[in-house]
Specification:
single chain, seven-stranded mixed beta sheet, about 270 residues
């Protein structure tokens, strides 16, 4: 059964979709079959992997509404071992349309059950809100990866998300855990960043990922080309950081087995 990781933070602009795209791509580059599920009506993960807008294409909206199966929704990406279930702006309607539906919180979980055996990792890109779409993702997930910036306001948002996770564990998904907290857009030279990192280490302990993601122009440029960073510029600091993050997470589940994910140099020879 694949490990389902929701990338979630209700605060926007923290690098959530960038993390979902590049983590999933780095898993795939490590020769791990990976599925990226775009659960955000903004569809940025979809366009970030080069899929054009297509209102006729089966999307996560159809999965949540029971109008299509996950097998029908899966699309190939440019990376050999990465697939995506795309999103569309009509997903906005699901928040209202599902309100009176049976098992409304379990729609995504039920839909993904048919493909979990095909993938070692399934990455869910959540919208920047604690709404019914994010709730579906958290109920479907085994764990939550929380991207955040090293800012004090970000700490306040994290406490709200952690409270939501605890409520979901108590009522809907008892096995849900925090995969980790990853610092994004980090400039570790500032005293503020160092102070926040120290506070986070006290609070999260080993749940704070040792890998951090720096501010990097190549990471920002890659989505406009419809590519993950490792295909756009594999030797950029951003691409290398997400490769390290993938390696760190893979090591949680395969500490002794299999080969380590390739380095940026190794990927660059085949990309």
């Amino acid at each position: 059964m694949g490990r389902v990781i929701a990338v979630a933070n209700q605060k926007g602009g923290v690098g959530k979709t960038t993390t979902a795209i590049n983590l999933a791509s780095s898993f795939a580059a490590a020769e791990v079959n990976t599925l990226l599920v775009d659960c955000d009506p903004q569809s940025n993960a979809t366009s970030g992997l080069g899929l054009p807008k297509d209102p006729e294409r089966i999307s996560t909206y159809h999965l949540l509404m029971g109008a299509a199966s996950s097998e029908e929704a899966v699309q190939r990406s440019e990376l050999e071992q990465l697939w995506i279930i795309p999103s569309h702006k009509n997903l906005n309607g699901a928040n209202l349309e599902l309100v009176e539906s049976e098992r409304r919180e379990y729609r995504l979980r039920d839909a993904l059950a048919a493909v979990r055996e095909r993938f070692q990792f399934i990455v869910l890109d959540c919208p920047p809100a604690l709404d019914l779409l994010t709730l579906n993702a958290l109920v479907a997930a085994d764990s939550v990866l929380i991207p955040m910036q090293a800012e004090y306001f970000a700490l306040e948002g994290i406490s709200e998300l952690l409270d939501t996770i605890e409520r979901i564990k108590g009522a809907l998904n008892a096995d849900l855990t925090v995969e980790g907290v990853v610092l994004t857009m980090l400039d570790d030279r500032t005293s503020l960043a160092k102070q926040v990192i120290a506070e986070l280490k006290k609070y999260f302990g080993e749940k704070l990922c040792s890998t951090t993601i720096p501010r990097n122009i190549r990471l920002a440029e890659a989505p406009s080309h419809g590519k993950p960073a490792l295909l756009y510029d594999v030797r950029s600091r951003g691409a290398e950081s997400y490769i390290r993050l993938a390696k760190e997470i893979i090591a949680h589940y395969f500490p002794q087995g299999g080969e380590a994910p390739p380095t940026a140099e190794e990927i660059g020879k085949t990309a």
